[in-house]
Design goal:
heterodimer, A: mainly alpha, B: disordered N terminus
Chain lengths: ~180, ~220
């Protein structure tokens, strides 16, 4: 079952009122949504951890959801924040090829999620910075690989990663 | 806490912990800095006194211009800041930039007058300037504390921006409170000391606040 904006919004309102049954469904659906949201944006073995961290943030910060506003942009802001935080803190090597078994689900959400996607966030920073973040922090390659693929020097790759992550952190709420 | 969590994740644990929460509302939040600004004005009036022209019921135009500009900037920055507690992709307030640009007219005008060597009234003394900084800072601190506490409850995602805005809002409202005492009407005095007060508060906000609101 695919989560939709109206359904999630209603569940969140009920959860804020203390409805545990609604909250269980909400967390379940948000977990699935987040797994798809993060897929291909971080090493596969880190997706589960990131989903968990985001759900815990959702739990801790649930009062910050304003029921008069859409739910998914709120969840996406929390998710982007956790994602950028994770990129800044850790690096995991990725060798596995990403599968696409949920392509149908992703296309279903494409219209709703395009403006709040992580790809959109990466599009907002300069290309040289986005490139090296993708190569090193998301795809898990080394700095040396990034130098070869982009033609940037090692120092420039490091600077671009640092500056790019800083910009990403500042642009979390941008569409 | 999150990084160390290696045990199997159990949604039911979060469900068990669920308690009803009151959604954070910016209208409720704005009461805090506004209330603290009123309190700061009361304290400054008690300890330092109110401007003579205000007491006489005939405020000088500079007082009104300064008060309006500082209040506008402080409130717009505070509203933008407090709204950051409720994040959302696509939610961005830019009004504070306009209010800040309007406030920058004072230092700009002061610079032009100073360069042109035109008389602009008493520029005060170092002592009066330090008093302006001190009162503005104390008033700003009083308004900043509840705003930071509000942000800590919320989920601000742009913490550097939140730091700047905290300083600008607090500095603007603190200087607004001091304005009720400040006896000087010079553009140069306003453009230098008030700008310095707000600028220092903004810098302190940028340096201190992000680490207080990280989550």
């Amino acid at each position: 079952m695919i989560a939709n904006e109206e359904g999630l919004r209603r569940l969140m309102r009920m959860s804020q009122s203390g409805d545990k049954q609604a909250y269980a469904v909400l967390l379940e659906q948000c977990g699935g949504w987040l797994a798809r949201y993060f897929r291909q944006k971080i090493a596969p073995d880190a997706v589960d951890d990131l989903v968990q961290e985001t759900l815990i943030s959702l739990h801790r910060k649930r009062a910050s959801y304003d029921p008069s506003r859409p739910f998914l942009p709120w969840l996406a802001a929390i998710a982007r924040y956790r994602w950028v935080d994770r990129l800044r803190q850790s690096y995991r090597h990725q060798t596995e090829v990403l599968d696409h078994h949920d392509a149908a689900e992703e296309s279903h959400e494409e219209v709703v999620g395009a403006r709040i996607s992580i790809d959109r966030l990466l599009d907002l920073i300069p290309l040289p910075q986005a490139e090296v973040i993708r190569i090193v922090k998301i795809d898990g390659h080394s700095i040396a690989d990034a130098c070869i693929q982009t033609g940037q020097s090692e120092a420039l790759v490091k600077v671009n990663i640092h500056r790019g992550l800083k910009k990403l952190a500042a642009l979390i709420e941008n569409e | 806490m999150n990084k160390k969590m290696k045990q199997p994740f159990d949604i039911s644990q979060l469900v068990d912990e669920l308690e009803p929460v009151r959604p954070m509302n910016i209208r409720r939040a704005l009461i805090l800095p506004v209330g603290m600004t009123v309190a700061a004005i009361a304290v400054i009036a008690t300890y330092a006194g109110i401007r003579a022209d205000l007491m006489a019921g005939a405020p000088h135009p500079m007082f009104l211009l300064r008060a309006g500009t500082l209040l506008l900037m402080g409130l717009v920055c505070a509203a933008t800041l407090l709204a950051m507690a409720n994040p959302g992709v696509g939610r961005q307030g830019h009004g504070w930039k306009t209010a800040l640009a309007a406030a920058l007219l004072f230092p700009l005008a002061a610079t032009i007058l100073a360069i042109a060597g035109q008389p602009s009234g008493s520029s005060g003394t170092m002592q009066s300037g330090i008093q302006c900084l001190t009162f503005s800072f104390i008033g700003g601190l009083a308004t900043a504390i509840p705003m930071v506490l509000w942000l800590r409850r919320g989920a601000p995602v742009a913490q550097e921006k939140a730091g700047w805005l905290t300083g600008l809002a607090a500095g603007g409202l603190g200087a607004f409170a001091y304005n009720f005492h400040c006896p000087f009407n010079s553009v140069v005095y306003t453009g230098f000391w008030y700008t310095l007060a707000v600028g220092i508060c903004a810098l302190l906000g940028r340096l201190i606040v992000p680490r207080l609101i990280r989550w």
